[in-house]
Specification:
The chain is an all-alpha fold. The chain has 4 helices and no strands. Bound molecules: fe (ii) ion (2 copies).
């Protein structure tokens, strides 16, 4: 196991937290396949599944950011695109790389993930929570106006 799911990674949005927790599982599966001496096609499969899950997660975050006109979405998406660029190059090499190089990639993904979640994603979840509390406040106002 490369990453343990811990409180530092919990941001307070149930859906995003669940998706992040799932990504931790897929990062660990890739790392475990690599370090348990699994056949190379299993390691490749775990790498491709991880990349697919990352893509889906990024798409769901970006969808929310666009829908809510999140101001920092361009900078946030640049971070996502940088990782996808790295992953794209990595997936083209994964069949040929030696285990040491693959381990470096796994550590790189872990570091990228923990940094991104605790900075850019934390900022976005803070924004989401503000949006919800503003919505609640305006609902309360309109209920008060009706009375
Ligand atoms: Fe995220
Ligand atoms: Fe993100």
């Amino acid at each position: 196991m490369l990453i343990d799911w811990n409180d530092r990674l919990v941001l307070g949005d149930a859906r995003i937290d669940q998706e992040h927790q799932d990504l931790v599982t897929f990062i660990n599966r890739f790392f475990d396949a690599l370090t348990n001496g699994a056949p190379r096609d299993e390691v490749c499969g775990a790498a491709f599944t991880l990349a697919e899950q990352v893509t889906q997660h990024f798409n769901s975050e970006v969808y929310l950011m666009e829908a809510l006109h999140y101001g920092a979405r361009a900078a946030h998406q640049r971070e996502h695109k940088a990782l996808m660029g790295e992953l794209g190059g990595f997936l083209r090499r994964v069949g040929q790389e030696d285990d040491r190089e693959l381990l470096k990639v796994a550590v790189f993904i872990k570091d990228w993930f923990t940094t991104h979640v605790t900075t850019a994603d934390a900022q976005f979840v803070g924004f989401l929570q503000d949006e919800v509390s503003h919505e609640d406040a305006s609902e309360e106002r309109s209920l008060a106006e009706m009375c």
